Fold this protein.
Amino acid sequence: MTCTPNFPQPSAISCAIALLALAPAFAAAQTAAAPAAAASAAKPASAQLEQVVVTAQKTAENPQKVPLSINVLSGDAAKDAGISNVNDLQGKLTGVSIVQQGPGASVQIRGVGSNPGGGNIDPSVAFSLDGVYQSRSSGAFGTMYDIDRIELLKGPQGTLYGRNATVGALNVISNKPSNVREGSVDFEMGSYNLVRMGGMLNVPLNDVVKVRIAAQHISHDGYLSDGYNDADDTAARLKVLIEPSKDFSLLLSADGHRKQGNGQGSIFTGTVSADGLTHTPARDDPSNAWHLTPVVPAELAKAGSTATGHYEPANLGLDVKNDGASAELNWNLGGSTLTAIGAWRRSYVLNQGSTGGSLIFPVYNVIDQSQKSLEVRLASNRAGPLKWLGGLFYIDEDAPTLNKGQAATSVAIVDMTKVSSKSASAFGQATYSLTPDTRATAGLRYTADRKAQLGRLYRNTGPVALQYDQAVDTSFSDSAFNYKVGVDHDLSKTAMVYASLSTGYKAGGLNFMPASSTGGDRHEFKPEKLTALAIGAKSRWLDNTLQLNGELFYWRYKNQQVAIVDQYDSPTGLHNSPVANLLFVNNPGPSKIFGFDIDAIWRLGSDDRLTGALSYLHARNGTFVMPATNFVVCPFPVPACKINLESTTDVTGKTLPFSPTWALNLGYQHVFGLASGGAVTASYDMHAESNSSVNYHLYDPERQPGYARHNIALAYNTPDGNITVTAYVRNVGNVAVLARGSVGGGTASSAAAHYASIMDPRTVGAAVNVKF
């Protein structure tokens, strides 16, 4: 059978089924070959695949024995790939799209995720650092240094991770203090005046107390010609591990991150219209998508103007502060282990930049979020047919939010002085060995949520007088049960198959409008729920040199939460007022998603390593008609200027955004041994996707054609392994890829201000790592 991306949908699924169906035959062949393998000399460990440990199910396990789809990226691999923040994971993990949106990160797994927005909008992918859940997406920045591994769990994780893990979880686990006195320093320079400096120091003070401190600073000029898409990030982390005995440990952690600079910008992807004036944004270099041509606002205001370029409001900068502290206790009680993690976190975001010259209002946005959380769980650690885990979780979050335009603009101001959320849950999961080779798993979680918000909505006193002032004081409460049932079976010592049925849940919430508004119950949006069926296989072959994993999945998604610009009050009242256009969460009708992922790693001897991943995705909207949004005053000085925002758009049955039908990752690494004892490692990797939309409206200007991006690197290691010098080229072909699109008006064929954020251009650099 030949499987190609050109096959229609039924053939793609049949192809995946056939590949998974081969697993029993492979297992039988390996079992038959076992005597011959035992009779021959085993390959050296350096030629075999390494064994890794994950904590995806809250206990330490071999990922090849965990019956769910997990992608694991080691800390060394992340460093080699130049991963310094969560956005850099784009193209490195199968079936996931990770892009920056403003000061936050938008994570989409298998086509489903959420827009990071105000304090009332939750993520659909749970992000955790060292076991501590991060409510706000800006907390995902400043974490990718001195890490042990990154785990991506695909599919609903409602039983063990709770709400807001509707479609999966992303875990970053940093290195713990160890018994080894060691340290390292990093220095990197590259394109756009890149400078990265970092280091780590691990000091065991005595047999009981160990300390580890790590820090990183990154700065570079803007990738966009107007200075946006720059970096000015500083982060540090301190860990103290106290181990008075082998049965008890206490890990104390504190970390901080500062992100400044201009922030994220956008490029135009379509024409701009305003009061009959139309111009097409131009660039001095049409072949350079990152270069924009400025234009004087007055030129755009002239009737019949043919001015080209983009209007750039004043950039007042970005200021993000993420801080946190946690304590993790682990206590072996004999037949079970008690774990308790208490944490406090704060994420302050002040975003005063424009939207990258989009002719939509420059945004002044403040979110000052703080959270307190506690998780206590008890897990079995005794050998036997039954393994179990149970626990309690509580989180208390407050995220007051202020949204308004910069000076001299006439837009709605949302001042949410209180945005609180409290969630409590109890959970448990157990696995029982029915036979030595077959296990059954069942899990259940109950979650109770309560949200409240208090504030006011009014129109800025700018070119027009204050027209509206509305107080908002609303609350929301709900509860949900989530479950998981599954079975897995060992085909051999190194091959298994599994099947599971699980659910995920994200709490409903509150749009910023009074409950008594003529919009009825639109002040509330419903909880989103996902039911997922998964059938998969995991295996290692050829004397532990080839790893092949795959999963078929079918998702039924109900009340997906989609945040788009919408009318404050429909169909009467403020429907046509500038104050009406706010970011609203909508609940489309049920959508269906199915497909497969296949991941492979192959060690061809001790010097060569091949990696590959292929995913197929069929993701379709349910019933979803986005309402029209009307008149908004333009930011540039045109008397009575208005932009017609989105018209009514029906995307029912159409492909979900961020859902390429095909995605492919490939990588190759070869080590050249030197006579001196040192080594040179050459590596190549690429990520390719078929076309997809990067905006929920699915307009053509926000459609990204199929593409492939390539990276190459050359690294030299000294004989003692203490010094590594690396040179690299990332995005070798300088391929421009749209990340997330927006639209400021019109229809699919005639719209105002189509624009999108864009991924990084080609960069060249060199790095040095010294261990001591």
Remarks:
- The two ends are 52 Å apart (CA to CA).
- Helices lie at 9-39, 75-80, 297-301.
